[in-house]
Amino acid sequence: MTTTSPGLAGVPLALTPLNRKDFTSDQEVRWCPGCGDYAVLAAFQGLMPQLGIRRENTVIVSGIGCSSRFPYYVDSYGMHSIHGRAPAIATGVATARPDLAVWVITGDGDALSIGGNHLIHSLRRNVNITIMLFNNRIYGLTKGQYSPTSELGKVTKSTPSGSVDHPFNPISLALGAEASFVARTIDSDRAHLTEVLTAAIGHRGASLVEIYQNCPIFNDDAFLELKGPKAPGVIRLVHGQPVTFGTDGAQSVVRRPDGTFGVVDTADADPAQVVVHDAHAADPTPAFGLSRLTDTGVLQQAPIGIFRQVERPSFDDQIRDQVRMPEPQERLSALQGLISGSDTWTVG
Amino acid sequence: MTDVLHQKLNSLALPQSKEGATRMSEVRNVDRVVIRFAGDSGDGMQLTGDRFTSDTAQLGNDFSTLPNFPAEIRAPQGTVAGVSSFQVHFADFDIRTPGDRPDVLVTMNPAALMANLHDLPRGAVILADTADFTTRNLAKVGYSSNPLEDGSLDAYEVHAFDLTGLAVGAVAGFGLGRKDAGRTKNMFALGLLTWLYSRPAQGTLDFLARKFAGKPAIRDANVAAFKAGYAFGETTEVFTARYQIAPAPMPQGTYRQITGNTALAYGLMAGAAKAGLQLFLGAYPITPASDVLHILSRAKDHGVITLQAEDEIAAVGIALGASYAGALGVTSTSGPGMALKMETISLAVMLELPLVICDVQRAGPATGMPTKTEQADLLQAVYGRHGEAPLPVIAAQSPGDCFDAAVEAVRVALTYRTPVILLSDGYLGNGAEPWAVPNLDDLPAIDPGFVTEPPAEGPFLPYARDARLARPLAVPGTPGLEHRIGGIEKAAGTGNVSYDPDNHEHMVRLRQAKIDGIADELPPLVVEDPSGHAKVLVVGWGSTYGPISAAARRVRLSGRAVATVHLRHLNPLPSDLGAILRAYDRVIVPEMNLGQLATMLRAKYLVDCESYSRVRGLPISLSELAEDLIAIIDEKTHIAEKEGR
Hints:
- The complex is a heterodimer of chains A (348) and B (645).
- By secondary structure, chain A is α/β, with parallel strands linked by helices.
- Chain A folds into two domains: 6-241 and 277-340, Rossmann fold; 244-275, no CATH class.
- Chain A is built from nine helices and twelve strands.
- An eight-stranded mixed β-sheet of chain A has the order 2-1-3-4-6-5-11-7, sandwiched between helices.
- Chain B folds into four domains: 3-14 and 24-244, Pyruvate-ferredoxin Oxidoreductase, domain 3, CATH 3.40.920.10; 256-442, Thiamin diphosphate (ThDP)-binding fold, Pyr/PP domains (Rossmann fold, 3-Layer(aba) Sandwich); 449-521, no CATH class; 527-642, Rossmann fold, CATH 3.40.50.
- Chain B contains 21 helices and 23 strands.
- By secondary structure, chain B is of the alpha/beta class.
- In chain B, the strands form five sheets. In chain B, strands 11-10-12-13-15-14-21 form a seven-stranded mixed β-sheet, sandwiched between helices. Chain B has a six-stranded mixed β-sheet with strand order 3-4-2-5-6-7, with helices on both faces.
- In chain B, helix 7 packs across helix 9 (216-235) and helix 10 (260-275) packs across helix 11 (290-297).
- Strand 12 (344-347) of chain A pairs antiparallel with strand 9 of chain B, so a sheet runs across the interface.
């Protein structure tokens, strides 16, 4: 028996219900006190039993960085690999085995710097994996250098005069790579985190979830303005709903005459111009426009939610469709025919 | 061109040189011939050589080929840089190399003559297509006069014809444009050579029918050009004799022609099939390894998954992921790609997962000479990782042997749970030889030995050890055996993260001991020393097998004794190697690098191994090696006599 969720099609169901303890390993969690990673781990261990799949069919592949210690803390199959390469390794796992739910745990340095190539190509290919990108806008494990998402002017150990390195917007990047599922959530909103991650694993193809995650040691309060249910800068994207935010929806996202998106006071907005979020639009342009509403400097405003979720055949499904594994008894004889070829001669 | 006409053409019997033919040519029996086809990159020389080789194979000759082409797809026309050649050596006996110096050079333009003339021995035959020997083309490569006419080739037997013109004439009426008509010149030349060396023609006729099935006019023109070339040899008075090379005595069996890259791909498939695992190749295109990707990509009906990755690093990562998931992960590359994969290979060492990394070596460093061969990745393969990261290194010695080497790599990877580097090279990969097709039923099964049940008591220990020091493998999806692995040092037994100093030392030594232990199960080395009196030992590895064994044969025919031993396993080195090295007065190590194996042997055994280096991007010359070995042996004998031994 398998689930009805497309992303988990082929993954066998647990025979008995599981609980969060089943997904908790015997290893002591060793993140710094107050690290946002704890909240993400808790949300993950809470949602996994709800999926109904077998624990042994869950594989978590991580790269290098604080968040990449994640697999050690989940009692499933897992691999803590090398810097930046988790999407490539997970591509191999997911393509070889349709019966596995494959997660990738990565960070802003891991996924966007050293592993940038693997990230964009796994999204482009649409391999059936779910990527949790912990974005704390800093290098934590190496103790505080700026990352590819750090804001311009950021003063760190490696940028004492301020960073002049223009940051990536991971959502824009993923949309540019034509990812079929792109979302953002935040460590401080457990319900939203759970909802987005559940949607991501349920999506067939590559899902990218950027998780704003606070690093209390090297980049504390980077997401302070977005914290809490009433945070005025959080733009919650809900499919089919007008995009409004702020206290009592005081502000609206509108499409300007030139096609770009902007923010106006709802009171002044022409209702016809207010953007209604369509996560399923085939054209990624509106989602890209929404992604540009994210501050590039110190964050005061950012959309969260599912920017894009469209159906596109997954790479691994298509690869497997092309391959036919002969039955064991005919495999050797078929291979014997292949290696003999058609132009043989006999001696003796 | 109609199919009716095509049938008519096909029904035309080829002129026969025996009774009833228009002219009787003398038939001379020779034991071996080396022919080099050389022309512009676009002249179809690789195809011509390949066809000639196939027809030669059908006759039962032993053969060995050396394709040699520029990296540029279409280098500037008519330049030396753009010359593409294909050399085939065929004989009525067991040969080991594609030959040093061609007996026959087929040259399609002045550049091909200039690029290859220096390899020809005096008296060699030059068969030249005069069509391209124009003032302009001669000037392009720096000839001030036409060498075909100015007497500068008097030391050779020159046959110069307007092959292009003859071919164009033969295909007139097939409706081809001047350019397409001219392109049949290679088939005209092939037809002529087919006659001259008494090769069967049917294979080429069948090939043309298949290749151009969708283009009847091109097919029929090529067939006509081929037949015209054959008839030209038959009827022209120029050739006083044609040649015959009897079949080579070979062990019983069914044979085919095979290149190293094909044999390597098939060996991987056979290994995976024998282990009952899916073969999963992650690869990035790179010369000269891409054919492994191509061949395996055509094997989808055999359950093979191939994935062309975004880069070399992803390719090995994907393969490692596939291995982790329970498939047989393989990646294929060449030197530059190896360098990029090394961090992931070190992860595979730490994870102790099976993985096969195929390195079809090419001349380096950097881009080097992508289409030329070399053996200079040995030290990279054995030592080229950070930390103490030992892994087995296995090398193939001939094109057909790539099959056996690949099967062995799969066996070692699965049995010992380790990444294995399989070394081939450009010469082996693209070169061809006759191959006795193995019966797959005769290959021993390989047991991947996955753990499927939780232990009766206690927790599952993914870093426990068996007698070979290999760890148990539990693939994802196995209930009750959930565990985490990673690149951080492992605690012995549990595999949990450990920074304990004693544990690290234990694990470093354990990983080394596991790889070293592979030597315990290797068969004894075979030392070739027919007389038993040799004082000089030649040690080789990889594709130098051909030149070394052929040179040794020549040395022995001269009445001298020489011993040879060839290594399949470069890491760990076989346990009987040290005693063998110490049993000889001199140890010579020929390699296409600056002495990498020699360095390893000197370091490990403290034996004064002498490096014999050639790094020209070509196989070591057997005649040069034979001469040098004779000099070394005579010097040895001379010293021994002087010292009264």
